[in-house]
Specification:
Helix content is 38%, strand content 25%. The chain is built from 8 helices and 9 strands.
Length: 255
C-alpha cells in the first residue's frame, strides 16, 4: 500500500472516533467473552497471582478493559498504563489510570519506533483489543505487535484480538457494499487497498472507518513476527453471536 493511502486511512479513523466517540462508546460497555480467557491464561502463567500487577493497554478506548479487570480479578491491585488518540473516549476513566494521548497508528506508518514516545514501563500484561484491525499495512501491524512486546516485562503476557468480520456472511456483505461506496468518497481506488482491507459504515450515518479482516495466513505471519521475543501460550476464537468473531493471540515474553 502506498504510504499516502495508508495515512488517509489512518486519518479517516482518527476523524471517525473524534466525531462518533459518544455513540461508539455507548455500544462498547459490556466486556468481551475472550477477555476472561485471556485472564485465565495470564493467571496460569503466574501474572495475576497478586498482590499487584501492571497492565499496558494500547488503544484503550473507553477503558472498559480496565473496569473489567478491577471487577473480575480479586486479590490483585492494578497499575494501569493506557494509550489512545481519542481523548474523548477515555475521558470518563482517564483519572484512574496513567493515560497518554498518542497517535500510535501514525507513528507506526512513519516508520519510527513508536515505543520510544510511550512513557509506560514494561508491564505484567500488555494488551490491545480492537486496535490492530485499524492499522493499515501488514508491516505496521507486525510493528504494533513488537511494540506490545517491548512494553511487556520478562515472562509477562502479551494479548491481542484480531477481528475476522469477513468470516461472518452478514458483516461481509455489508463490508463489500460500504467499501465500494467509500473508496469513491475518499478518492482512492480499490487497488489501493490490500487483501482484507475494507471501509465500514456506522449506524445510520455517513461516517466511515478503515478496518482489516484477518486471515489464517496473516495471523501465522504475525506469530512469526514476534517469535524471537515472545512464545505463544494461547490462541482461540471468541465474541460475537457465533462466538468466533475475534481471534485472540496470547504470548509469553521471553527472557
Amino acid at each position: 500500500m502506498d504510504t499516502s493511502v495508508a495515512n488517509i486511512l489512518c486519518s479517516l479513523n482518527t476523524r471517525f472516533y473524534r466525531d462518533n466517540a459518544r455513540s461508539f462508546s455507548a455500544t462498547r460497555q459490556a466486556p468481551w467473552e475472550g477477555w476472561g480467557r485471556c485472564v485465565d491464561i495470564a493467571r496460569r502463567e503466574g501474572r495475576l497471582d497478586g498482590p499487584r500487577a501492571s497492565v499496558f493497554d494500547l488503544a484503550c478506548g473507553n477503558l472498559r478493559f480496565e473496569a473489567y479487570l478491577r471487577s473480575s480479578v480479586e486479590g490483585v491491585a492494578f497499575d494501569f498504563f493506557a494509550v489512545d488518540n481519542c481523548d474523548a473516549l477515555a475521558a470518563d476513566g482517564a483519572r484512574t489510570v496513567r493515560y497518554q494521548s498518542a497517535d500510535v497508528c501514525s507513528l507506526l506508518l512513519a516508520g519510527r519506533d513508536a515505543a520510544e514516545g510511550l512513557s509506560a514501563p514494561p508491564c505484567s500484561i500488555a494488551a490491545s483489543f480492537g486496535f490492530l484491525h485499524h492499522v493499515p499495512t501488514e508491516a505496521a501491524r507486525a510493528a504494533a505487535l513488537l511494540l506490545l512486546a517491548d512494553k511487556t516485562e520478562e515472562a509477562g503476557c502479551l494479548c491481542v484480538s484480531l477481528w475476522r468480520f469477513m468470516d461472518d456472511p452478514r458483516l461481509a456483505g455489508k463490508a463489500r457494499v460500504s467499501t465500494a461506496q467509500g473508496i469513491k468518497r475518499l478518492g482512492i481506488a480499490e487497488g489501493d487497498l490490500e487483501p482484507g482491507d475494507y471501509l465500514l459504515g456506522w449506524q445510520n450515518t455517513d461516517a466511515l472507518r478503515f478496518c482489516h479482516s484477518f486471515s489464517d495466513a496473516e495471523i501465522e505471519r504475525l506469530v512469526s513476527a514476534v517469535a524471537d521475543v515472545a512464545a505463544p501460550v494461547g490462541r482461540f476464537r471468541a465474541d460475537g453471536r457465533g462466538g468466533n468473531l475475534n481471534e485472540y493471540l496470547v504470548f509469553k515474553k521471553k527472557g
